[in-house]
Structure formats: C-alpha cells, structure tokens
Specification:
InterPro entries: AlkZ-like
Strand content: 15-25%
Low-confidence stretches: none
Oligomer: single chain
Number of strands: 16
Mean pLDDT: 93
Largest sheet: 4 strands, mixed
Strand order of the largest sheet: 1-11-12-10
Distance between the termini: 46 Å
Organism: Streptomyces djakartensis
Pfam families: AlkZ-like (PF06224)
Protein name: Winged helix DNA-binding domain-containing protein
Length: 400
C-alpha cells in the first residue's frame, strides 16, 4: 500500500475540470469531441444530451444544429442502450464495444423475458416473434426511419397485445411493438432516430442500427473500461462496477487486461490507466458550469463525496437517485439551477464555502451562455428534484 501514489480531492477535481471539458481551456469545438471525451452521454432525457454538450462547447450557439447533425445527419453519434440498461449517446465508432461488453448479456435477458411473458399470456411463441422481427426490420430498412405506428402499417402483427403479470397488482397490457422494439434496441439491431418534435422531445422514430463487427466480450470490456478510466480516473472498484453494471469479476479482469495502476484515494484503493498516476495539471483559471439533470459528470461515479457534499443530495436528487440540474465551481457541486416557465434561468448556492464574488460572476456568465443558445425553448427535466421544483415555483429574482 505504501507504494501507491495518493491522489487527493484537489487533484481529482482538477482532472475532472480538464478531462470532462468543463474548464474554459478544455472546451470542445464539436459534439463529437464532447462525446469522445466523456465516453457516453446520458440519453434518457433527450434535452439533457444537448444541454450536456452545450455546457462544454467553445461556441454553444451551435449546440442544437451541430448535435442534431451528429445524431441524425452524419450519424457520428448514436443513441442506444448501454451500461445498466440505460439509454446513452455514444460515438458511433464505440457501438461495437458497448454492444459486446454490455449489450449482449442484457439483450439475452430481455428476449427471454419477452418470450416468457408472451408464453404466460398464451401469445404466439419464438417462431412467430422471429417472423414479426424480420418483417419489421425489413420495413424499417425500406422506410429509413419510422415510428412504431408507421411500422405497424407494414407489419400489423406489431399491434397485437398480451396481458402482462395477470392477477398481480401491476398487471398491464403490453403491445408487441413496444416490447419487441425495446429488445431489438438492446440487441443493437435498431437505434433511436429523429424525434417527432424539437430537440427536447422524448418521442423518437426508429432506424436500423449502423453495422459493426462482433467483438470478443472480454476484449470489449477492457476497451470500454480503458476509455472510461482515461476520462474519469481515478475511480474505485465500486465506481467501475456501478458505472458499467458488470460483475465484479468482469471489472477486475478488465483492470488486469489494461494494466491499470492502483492509487490511494480518500475512499481507499483507486485505479487509473497505465502511466496515468503522475501528478495532473490544474486548469489555467477557475471555472463554473451549469450542468443538466443526468449529466455524465454528475452521474459518473458511485462514490461522490469528493465533488458533492452529502448534505446537498436531498435537494439535488430525486428519490430514484437521478441527479437534477447542478451548479459547479472549480470541480465541485455548489448548488442547482432551473428554468422557469418564462424562460428565465434561476440558480441557488447550497454550499457557500469558497463561493465568493468571483464564483458568482462566473456562474452568472454561464447563465448568460445557456440563456443565449437555449433561446425561447423551455426545458423541464424528465426527473424533477426538490430544488428544481422549488426554484421554478418561486418567481423571485434569478439568483435565489
């Protein structure tokens, strides 16, 4: 243990500012650069993807057009299921790694669960479902992009329904299209296409997934973990297991495969990529950021005390553990923000330590940046937190 280098909170926050592209000098020119640096952008809330990108761009005025181009024009970014059965936005070049490292295992469970639920309900079996699947994928290939309703025009069996959990308190009726498209998404056969509305819309068309090679699972896990540690290291084994959703044996095997180095953290043993244990530089200047709910930085680690004081969590997280919009100063969360119905961005400091005149001026500058590119669009987080609700209900001045 004595041979491990100690990496303290200050250095971890410095690494975060630079590697997560939040410090001014580290901001990116394109959404692709942002996604490449962060590995994955949480995609459960569609607007959060754009907000996370905009917070990290040199020129956020291009956020909506450039992110839309990357997702739906160039397809250099793709929205798909990934770690922990969660929807993320990844660089397209990483889809094979994500699918092999994580998706195949989850996909097998999802298909088995669908077939089991259909059998219990007396619905047709695997052969029938395979026919519907092949017909659906062919229809989607012809159309390019389509909603589930549009696909059902070509394959009417998608409209068929079956009872789920009959007799239970949570009994419900499932449509074949909903369950099958979800399975196909986890299997990497389809991805979300263009939304039906604006960039804040949660209703998506579907598209055939970009082709990719089938990789060895262990090699893919090593590559995904290497990329994530390069962006987020140091991290504990608990952090890695939580973020990936893998078994601890998979995490340990991947750490060994990439030759990860062990370091000492306040929480115990941490890990960095090979050669990354040397002292890291600090940002040139102090920095502030307004990050959205489910931002990949705020949600990047399971053990968060080094950047988020425990007493702030009740106000900033919902009951399921989803983080809301956060205000950052020099590598730590100091408060939260919200957008009111009239478009005004409001914020509140919850941790006053070290937050003086310079910090407040920097936060106001970020408010102006965000207001400038969001414009007349109104953004409400999908998962609302106590502070966000309070800020939007209170119609007082902007800095609450």
């Amino acid at each position: 243990m004595g041979s491990r280098r100690y990496i303290g909170v200050a250095e971890r926050r410095a690494r975060l500012g630079l590697r997560q592209r939040l410090a001014g000098q580290a901001r990116a020119d394109t959404p692709e650069q942002v996604a490449e640096s962060l590995v994955a952008l949480h995609g459960t809330d569609p607007a959060a993807v754009y907000l996370a990108v905009g917070a990290r761009l040199v020129n956020p005025a291009t956020t909506v057009d450039d992110t839309g181009r990357a997702l739906y024009g160039d397809r250099s970014l793709v929205r798909m299921h990934g770690m922990r059965h969660t929807v993320f936005v990844f660089p397209t070049a990483l889809t094979a790694v994500v699918h092999a490292s994580t998706g195949r295992t989850v996909a097998a469970r999802e298909r088995a669960a669908l077939l089991r639920d259909m059998a219990t309900a007396g619905a047709p079996g695997a052969a029938w479902l395979k026919e519907v699947e092949e017909s659906t994928l062919a229809a989607l290939a012809r159309r390019g992009e389509a909603t589930a309703a549009e696909l059902a025009e070509d394959e009417p069996r998608l409209r068929e329904q079956f009872v789920y959990a009959a007799g239970k308190s949570y009994e419900g009726v499932h449509t074949v299209s909903t369950r099958l498209l979800k399975v196909l998404g986890v299997e990497g056969k389809v991805v979300r296409g263009r939304p039906l509305g604006s960039w804040t819309s949660g209703q998506f068309r579907w598209a055939v997934a970009p082709g990719h090679a089938e990789l060895d699972a262990a090699e893919a896990q090593a590559e995904l973990l290497r990329r994530w540690l390069a962006a987020c290291g140091p991290a504990t084994e608990a952090d890695l297991k939580w973020w990936t959703g893998w078994r601890v044996t998979d995490v340990r095997r991947a750490l060994t495969a990439i030759g990860a180095e062990s370091v000492e953290l306040d929480e115990g043993v941490g890990h960095v990529t090979e050669g990354d244990s040397d002292p890291a530089p600090e940002p040139d200047e102090p920095w502030a950021a307004l990050l959205p709910g489910l931002d990949p930085t705020a949600m990047g680690w399971q053990q968060r005390d080094w950047y988020l004081a425990p007493e702030l969590r009740p106000a900033l997280f919902d009951r399921s553990g989803n983080v809301g919009p956060t205000v950052w100063w020099n590598g730590r969360v100091v408060g939260g923000w919200a957008q009111r119905s009239d478009g005004e961005i409001v914020w509140r400091i919850l941790d006053e330590e070290g937050v003086g005149r310079e910090a407040r001026a920097a936060i106001e500058s970020e408010v102006e940046r965000l207001t400038g590119w969001v414009g007349t669009t109104r953004v409400t987080p999908r998962f609302r937190t106590p502070l966000e609700k309070e800020l939007t209900a209170n119609q007082g001045p902007g800095a609450a």
